[in-house]
Amino acid sequence: MNEHSNIVPLRQPDEIDDPLTNILRSGARQLLAQAVEMEAEAFLAAMKGLKLPDGRDRLVRHGHGPVRTIQTGIGAVEVARVKIRDRAVTSDGERIRFTSAILPLWARRTKSLDALLPVLYLRGISTGDFQEALAALLGKDAPNLSPAVVSRLTTEWQLEYERWQKRDLSARRYVYVWADGVFLQARMEDHSECMLVLIGATPEGKKELIGFQVGVRESTQSWHELLVEAKTRGLKIAPEIAVGDGALGFWKALDEVFPATRHQRCWVHKTANILNKVAVSVQASMKKDLREVYLASNRASAEVAIDVFAEKYGAKYDKAVECLTKDRDAMLAFYEFPAEHWDHLRTTNPIESVFATVRHRTVRTKGSLSSTTAKLMVFKLLCAASKTWRRLKGTNQLPKVIAGVRFENGIEVIQVPENHAA
């Protein structure tokens, strides 16, 4: 048969001619295959001491499983699972089995894609449109993302969420908490509903999702229910400080459930509220002056910066000045904690960053989400984001806060009994 041909295949209209993507996928296929092989070899090496009575190795390679397609962020990648055979037959019929951590038995998608689905859903894309939305990234008719598959995923997420909701918090301790209410107006059935999110920092400096629920706006009752629910599951010790915006509902509920917790207002929200009260021409200068307050090296300097701000703008922009000065203590509470933590305590950024691409959308898109479905999508979004949350700086300071050390301007000054508030 003649190997040379003058017939040149034409690119189809819906195909994307991208040699670079093809090279990346080819390289990813090779790397994945190598990683799976190395994992199997490492397992065999660890079990090298297991022998049969005749001296032969008990565990040996046994070929590969069927080739399967894994959906990744750069498209479909084909790979075959390594099979390992246990040649010994025990009295109870048990055999040693090899399970790949890289390529689980039933995996069909990377975890990053599962994390992407809630984002698409909350952005207003229905399950039936996922394949079209991802076609440019994953290729036409991307498998393993059909509406039926996504529906099955949501069922699994519901079970995962229910287990998470029942977890025991009695062994947990959160020294700092961040709270915020997130409106997902594009997909919620009722525009008055929002997601109430509570994140905490452990004494080791790790940020964790404590709880969230669908609330009626940011009412005191909704926040009270969320805080009481966490306390009922074992969260008995009050956090040292809570960071949130100006929503009165949260602060009133916090005082009812954890009255010893200090209040720290978010500087990002406060700055936006102040600038909204002045002309655009003044905002740049005013924003710079506000930075002099919350970036001051100590509380005394911050107090002076507030006084300067009030004197500079009080005559003409009294409402902006009042917006700042009425919450003076709550805006500067972070200075009573270790200086390494100030960057973390000034804002609700851990929550803001998670929802940056899906919140405050005013255009109502096709297909509203029920409260239950929205809660599941937000749960998965938060679970994925929690793996990337930045640990607290200066984590060695956290045990001192728990032990009752008082700080002034971020410096340890007084040792107080452990049962007293820091």
Automatic annotation (TrEMBL):
Stretches that traverse the bilayer: none
Q: Which PROSITE patterns match?
A: TRANSPOSASE_MUTATOR
- Its domain of life reads Bacteria
Key words of the record? DNA recombination, DNA-binding, Plasmid, Transposable element, Transposition
Could you tell me the Gene Ontology terms of the biological process aspect for this record? DNA transposition
InterPro entries, from UniProt? Answer: Transposase_mutator
Q: Name one GO molecular function term.
A: transposase activity
* Membership in a protein family: Belongs to the transposase mutator family.
* Function of the molecule: Required for the transposition of the insertion element.
Q: Any idea what this protein is called?
A: Mutator family transposase
